Each structure stands twice: as structure tokens, then as C-alpha cells.
Amino acid sequence: MAPIIFSGIQPTGRKHLGNYIGAITQYVAGQDRGEPAIYCIVDLHATTVAYDPAELRARVLDTTAILLAAGLDPERCILFRQGDVAEHTELCWLLTSVTALGELNRMHQFRDKSAAQRELVSAGLLLYPVLMAADVLAYRAGEVPVGEDQREHLELMRDIATRFNARFGEGLLVVPEQRIPAVGARVRDLQSPERKMSTTGGSEQGTVYVLDDATTIMKKFKRAVTDSDDPPVIRCDEDKPGVTNLVEILAAVSGVSSDSVVQELASARGYGDLKVAVGEAVAAELAPLQERYRGLRDDEVALEAILAAGAAKARAIASVTLADVRAAMGVGPPRG
Ligand code: TYM
Fold it and tell me: Does any domain span residue 199?
């Protein structure tokens, strides 16, 4: 049976190559398998750290245009904004009853993000993974395409669903499976390959943005940190995170295995050839997306209309789950 696919993405115009390879290309592929494939721009999650309200609206539209430019088709998937579907926040609250405070406190992302806050560590930051669980569970999705960094959140989500079913009725919620890509599940920062590529924790020079122009992309790859092996050796190995990262990026954007990239570059003269090859492949991959983005981003009325139509379809599914959950939990009036 075709799975219900669900994934969420934060609203920002600075989506990077990690988001693109680890998640966005999987969303596009999921459109043909998902029944349906549902993708959500998570504006509510974005309010858990300091932010500017007008900016948030603009970033949602940036992200919508990026996703459409990457190949999401509103006829073949449901694309919507989280804040348009109130069922997410309601289910989040209901799920807190089966979520342990200790588990939330232990989440790595909560620890990292709360340590980075200079002023307020919001309760929203602590509840972030519960809202994420609500996002997925509201649609009874079976499959969640994400990068490696979301593994802990996915495990918590599975625990929440299992505990909810044990407490309120087996089969009420679906325990989802994580879907991590074979290559590119963890794209690394080009300057500090021991870290993941990230908008918040990474370096500017080490982060390739989906909307970077070709010259900037080439410059970033040419300056990528590799290693000092002499002679240089192009292979994938835990001790060679910089080289492995470049090989995996090239493999992912060319649609081949890391092994065949290594074989192809067997006669390369040093790391320079690898850097140029990956830079050119990434620039070529992103050029048509950027072109389409420029054509889409200015028509805000059209983008809002796409999100509104997606929200109506999303609400139709989520409201059915919420009615079952409320009934099972004894919340609100009895079902007629
Ligand atoms: P966000 O917006 O930070 O990231 C979007 C997707 O990109 C993946 N990703 C990466 N993949 C490979 N290498 C990297 N360096 C890299 N960095 C990011 C992420 O794993 C993610 O799949 N919490 C989520 C948004 C969310 C969500 C959900 C996801 C909200 N509700 C429900 C799935 C299901 C987030 O912050 O994604």
C-alpha cells in the first residue's frame, strides 16, 4: 500500500545544500509514492526562538517558492503552512499528556538551542519536538523523510505515538518510520567538516545556500577543508570527513554511488580536481532551480493561494484524526 508521507521544513530563504540533499530531493521523489505526500512549512516552530513577525511571513514565501522551484507540484502533493491548520497546536497540547518532561530535557537540539539563547529560553523550545510529533501524527503518516539530524526527534515521536495508543486505544495513531537518504543524510560544513552544515551553527563560508550564485558556490567549494594526506587520497573514511563530504555531495547531486565517484576520480591530481568537480555539479544542479525561483517568488498572491489550497486539504485529513483523539481522550462534547 502506498504510504502517507509527511515532512516539515523551517521557513527561511537561506535553505542550504544539507536541506536540499537530505530532505528536499526526497520530498520531490515522495510525490510519486505518497498517498498523499504532505509537506509543511513550520512557521509555528520558527516562533520558538527570537524572530521578527514581518520577516517570518516573507521567509515562509521564500521557502514556498524554493520548494516549488525544486519540483514540488501542488497537484501531486499537499504543500501548506503549519499555522494555517489549528489541529497541529491542538494535538500538540493533547500529546503533552503522554510526553515525559525528562525526555524533552534530554533532547540534543533543545540543549544546543537553549544554550545558544542569550535572553529567553522559551517553553516553546522545550515543546518543539511535541509539536513536531503532532505535525506527523495528525496525518497518521507512515513515512517521514528527513536528514540524520532529526533522528532523535523521530524516535521521541514514535515513543509518543506508542504511549498514546497504549493509554487511549491501540491503532488510534500510526507509529511512523523515519526515511533517511542513502547518501547525503548528513551534509557537513565545508569549513568544519566535523559539524553538520547548518544555518545556525555553521560557518558562512562552509555553508552553500540553495540560492548562492555559481561564482559563490565555486569559491566555497574551492576553499573547502580537506586533509593533509600526502599524496592526497580520495576515498570515504571516518578519518577523512572533509573528503568524504565532498565525495558524498558529488554522488548525491549526480545520482550515483560514492564508490563510483571515487573510481571516477582515481586519476585526479589532488583534491583540487575533486573540489572543482563537486562545485560545478552543484552549481549546475541549482541553476535551473534558481531560475524558477526568481519566476515564482514575486507573485505573492499566487504563493498564498497555493498555501491556502494546501491547508484546506491538510485540514480535511487532520480534523478526522483530531475527532478520534478527542473522543478517545474524553475531551470536549461526546461525539454525536
Ligand atoms: P529544518 O528546516 O532544520 O531542516 C529541513 C530538513 O533538512 C534536513 N537537514 C539536513 N540533511 C542533511 N544534512 C544536513 N546538514 C542537514 N541539515 C538539515 C533536516 O533533517 C530536515 O529534514 N524540525 C524540523 C522541521 C519539522 C519536521 C516536522 C520534520 C517540523 N515538523 C515533522 C519532519 C516532520 C527542522 O528543523 O527542519
Answer: no
- For residue 97, give every residue at least 6 positions away whose Cβ sits within 8 Å of its Cβ, in sequence order, or none: 329
Q: What are phi and psi of 9, to 5 degrees?
A: -145, 140
194 Cα–ligand 1 center, Å: 18
* 100 grid coordinates: 515525559
- How remote is the C-alpha of 21 from its chain's centroid? 10
Place of cell 480534523: 319
Q: What is the mean pLDDT of residues 88-93?
A: 98
pLDDT at site 235: 92
Residues 38 and 93 grouped into a single domain: yes
What is the distance between the terminal CA atoms of the chain, rounded to a whole angstrom? 32
Domain containing residue 106? 5-179+300-329
Q: What whole-number distance in Å separates Cα of residue 178 and Cα of residue 144?
A: 5
Choose one of 149, 177, 197 to mutate for the ligand 1 pocket test, by most ligand atoms within 8 angstroms of C-beta.
149
Distance from Cα 226 to the centre of ligand 1, integer Å: 26
Summarize pLDDT for 136-147 with one digit per residue, the tens. Answer: 999 999 999 999
How many other C-beta atoms can be found within 10 angstroms of the C-beta atom of residue 94?
Answer: 20
- Nearest-atom number in ligand 1 for the CA of 145 is 22
Whether 140 and 76 share a structural domain = yes
What is the domain-level CATH number for residue 83? 3.40.50.620
Q: Which residue of 4, 5, 7, 9 sits with most ligand 1 atoms within 8 Å of its CB, as the best mutation to test the pocket?
A: 9
Same domain, 153 and 219: no
Say what the pLDDT of residue 10 is.
Answer: 97
Q: Does residue 192 sit within a domain?
A: no
CA distances 208 to 59, 202, 205, 276, 293, Å, are: 18, 10, 8, 14, 17
Co-location of 227 and 273 in the same domain: yes
Contacts for 83 with CB less than 8 Å, ≥ 6 apart: 43, 44
Q: How far, in Å, from the CA of 43 to the mean position of ligand 1?
A: 13
Residue 206 placed within a domain: no
- The average pLDDT across 60-72 equals 98
